[in-house]
Amino acid sequence: MPLLPLTVVTTLLHFYIAIRLVPAMGGLAAVPALALLLALAISAVSMPLPFIGLRSKATPLADGWKWLGLVSMGWFSSMFVLTLVRDGGMLATWLASLAFPFQIDTVQAQRWSALAVPVLATATSLIGFFNARRTAAVVRVDVPMPDLPWALHGFTIAQLSDIHVGPTIKRGYIQRIVDAVNALEADVIAITGDLVDGSVAELRDHIAPLSGLRARHGTFVVTGNHEYYAGAPAWIDELRRLGLRVLLNEHVLLKTRESRGAQTDEEHDGNLLVLAGVTDYTAGHFDAAQASDPQAALAGAPVAATTRVLLAHQPRSAPAAAQAGFQLQLSGHTHGGQFFPWNLFVPLQQPFVAGLNKLGDMWIYTSRGTGYWGPPKRFGAPSEITLLRLVRS
């Protein structure tokens, strides 16, 4: 939706919140009512600021204004949802009073519930801000695999996803992530898309710490939808310049241990791990030549190398990945919903929201993301750096 109509809609929704809450607070709550009106006015004016200049010739605003707009966006989201919940509760109470003989002080109920909405919205926004800005915690996950070669038992993959370097995520934030990942001493580092929200010229310096990622077999990246919004070809070149391997519907073969004694070619191939990567599920809409293709990503892989791991940004790549013969898919995209109530809507688009799940014989792990998108807010969906360990079952 273009910026102007979207701004009109969000402004009207701010008016709706004001009309529903401010009069209900009454004269005894004049100071909170005035404070709420001021906060709503600031929110309505500032929310469009992060998007000015993104798709027009207008000059983008400074990051400070974008910070204000994005924080307002997170607070407004909670305000709007809680206002709807309050109105639903008041309607249910009124209907119940018609059906059952009980008395309720409607004026007091409206007043206290009206006061509760901004208090709860502000509290969840503050908690969500802390959760979003802290360095993501390490989540350790064992992935059981039948017939996993003993040479691959204990193989570790550190997964990063959905960092969204941009207006509020900068070099210092990235450096903290790099330090935390390097401390894990993983065999492989996998970045499953949506790394950036901006052009190479804007973000080159902030993404630079990724060149310091260290793992035995290196760092591998696949594109997410946001790379295509930001100019995927330029970002692919930049990530390769930093020493990261970008997998575009292709695979690499990883030899995990030195062979002991003589091995046949088939025995040697059986101890290899096939690590493949596909472009984003929607990449074909931006560049037909980069349409996501799990089957093509396996082309030429040794038949005996049956341990096959796919990096795919969106969980909805899973059916095609399972059909292609992968044993494990690592994805992101969903952010685990990031904060209520958006976690309720993710299943409408994606088959999995977060965590380890199974589709047929294939495991799929969906990261809640290592950063955040838009509002610096995470509530009920903490960010994560995932350390996955392959184990023989």
Automatic annotation (TrEMBL):
CDD domains: MPP_YkuE_C
SUPFAM superfamilies: Metallo-dependent phosphatases
Ranges that cross the membrane: 30-52, 64-85, 112-130
Keywords tagged on the record: Hydrolase, Membrane, Metal-binding, Transmembrane, Transmembrane helix
Protein name: MPP superfamily phosphohydrolase
Organism: Variovorax ginsengisoli
InterPro entries recorded: Calcineurin-like_PHP (IPR004843), Metallo-depent_PP-like (IPR029052), Metallophosphoesterase_sf (IPR051158)
Pfam families in the cross-refs: Metallophos
Tree of life domain: Bacteria
